[in-house]
Amino acid sequence: MRxxxxxxxxxxxxxxxxxxxYANQTVIITAxxxxxxxxxxxxxxxPNLSVNPLPRNSSQNYTVYYTDPERDxxxxxxxxxxxxxxxxxxxISTSEYDTSSGAYVDFTHLTPSSIPGTNPYTITITIxxxxxxxxxxxxxxxx
Length: 143
What we know:
mainly beta; Immunoglobulin-like; five-stranded mixed beta sheet; three-stranded antiparallel beta sheet; 10 strands; 0% helix; rod-shaped
């Protein structure tokens, strides 16, 4: 007895393929499933200082470089210490990745007009690729 077998294999990356075959006997199908979506990795923050000293009422430009093996569209949030500026957020499209599967997040942080009660204070940069979230902190000392 000849039977038609049809199977579809879909991966977590959104791709799928369908195959068909004819068999006169039992067919065993084995599928290897990958590790799924891997988390982004924050590679660097520039300027890279353990504590960044900045004067009151000043601004500092930052660049965060991260990689994501799947080059997923991602969102980012820059959250300052409580009571400071409004959080900054945005998105990174899949076309913004470089050939090393990396992308950049650029933002400007404004320091307060007076020396804060908690000094140095921390801002947090968070990147989410839709499945995984990573974050890093930057400490700022206001003088």
